[in-house]
Amino acid sequence: MAVTVKSAKETELMREAGRLLEIVHDEMAKMIRPGISTMDINEYGDKVIRELGCVPNFLNYSGYPASICVSVNEEVVHGIPRRDHILKEGDIVSLDAGLIYKGYHSDAARTHAVGQIDPKVQKLLDVTKQSFFEGIKMARAGNHLFDISNAIDSYVTPFGYGIVQDLVGHGIGTSLHEDPQIPNFRQKRRGIKLVPGMTLAVEPMINMGTWEVEWLDDGWTVISADHSVSAHYENTILITDGEPEILTLHV
Ligand code: MF3
Ligand code: CO
Questions:
Q1: Cβ neighbours around 160 below 10 Å, total
Q2: What is the fold, at CATH topology level, of the domain defined by 8-245?
Q3: Domain limits of the chain?
Q4: Which of 155, 175, 206, 243 ranks highest by number of CB atoms within 10 Å?
Q5: Ligand 1 atom having least distance to the Cα of 97
């Protein structure tokens, strides 16, 4: 499928899809504490999405059985919420959520600390989040797609962390996943030229240890191969004539 360039009208719908998803994330963030289950987060996230008049796009996507991906500690992404998975002090939890507003998709992820966490783990969270911002500095019309990938890699690699390679960011619009794929690690080619109106989900996934991952028998949950903790940070962005617009984050 070709990379889509959104019209002004479509861009407005993408903006609204993004703004509403930010509300969902802000709401879920407030409930993070020891003692809640990963299913509690899924149920609340699903409720907020629907109250906003939107539809959760992850639910039933290729058979995914929940509305929110909730990935704890060594789980990288696509953790399936469970009633019996209770968060405890010192955990980290990655929440990945998306919604559809008037046919347009948004997608964003945040990793949260549960209570007090090891400063070394906090560093991983900080670096993962900052790597997104380093990457999107390159997300400008006229630059090439893999300038984003290379910027993320250049920032993260000196910390000695593992950049996940088996999963990548993606275009987004009237589908959750559109072309192009957006790797978070160094590329030998330049990739497509960026054009105003492209909407992209940029989502570095960074492991404390090895970059290698494995899939659990549930067919969904991705974990780090060495069971080291893993962080995820994602926003949906819009390529403009100037700086990229972050559709799922307004500071
Ligand atoms: N944010 C993820 C992605 O972009 C989550 C989607 S997986 C799903 O691919 F199956 F749960 F939808
Ligand atoms: Co995504």
A1: 8
A2: Creatine Amidinohydrolase (3.90.230)
A3: 8-245
A4: 206
A5: 1
